[in-house]
Amino acid sequence: MKSKFDPQKHHRKSIRLKGYDYSSEGAYYVTIVVHGRECLFGEIVNGEMILNEYGKIVQKWWDEIPIHFSNVELGAFVIMPNHIHGIIFIISERRGEVISPRDNPNHNNQNTNVDETEKLGAETAPLRKPTLGQIIAYFKYQSTKEMNKIETKDAITKFWQRNYYEHIIRDEKDLQSKTDYININPSLWDEDDNNPKNNL
User: Fold this and answer.
1) Looking at the whole model, is its pTM more than 0.90?
2) Are 18 and 124 in contact (CB under 8 A)?
3) Structural contact between residues 137 and 112, judged by C-beta atoms closer than 8 angstroms
4) DSSP strand pairing (26-33 vs 83-90)
5) Is 186 helix (H, G, I), strand (E, B) or coil?
6) Please, what's the largest Cα pairwise distance for the chain?
7) pLDDT digit string (tens) for 85-100?
8) Which of these CATH numbers, 3.10.450.50, 3.30.70.1290, 3.65.10.10, 3.30.70.1130, describes 26-187?
9) How far apart are CA 126 and CA 51, in angstroms?
10) Can you give the pLDDT at residue 12?
11) Is 32 helix (H, G, I), strand (E, B) or coil?
């Protein structure tokens, strides 16, 4: 599904001196990888991802993000055996209006750590203006908590890598490219760098 992006209407007006403001309205492409790159969420069968119980929990908590954060909407999303890709829109209080993050080449592609202070707020009341890190921290915390309630032969306490990869989506072409990649990702599993077979 194509999402509308208007760089003329939705441009950034100010330059912040101390790094990028990740509570800014905009579109963000994120990748979160399973701890140790273990294939915990299901398997690819004939180019289609078949979710197991863990995978269904991940889907549930991703879908819950806009319920907890009223100024967040979700774009394309896919669960792979050991990682996820998704698009998060941080919007104004008026749902549906997406504003492009300002052009900041130093913050285009980041392998980002979730700050400890953001983790502390993972179970608090909804935040009015969350940062991208707080959104990811909430998702990781809630999904991990529920997955750990499943009784397994070998108990798992840590499901996600500490960091995550993010890319600031700059325009409609970029958004469409990331959306297309997410949609076809299961069919690319055989060549995926996260596929354990490619790291033997």
Assistant:
1) no
2) no
3) no
4) antiparallel
5) helix
6) 55
7) 999 999 986 444 444 4
8) 3.30.70.1290
9) 29
10) 33
11) strand
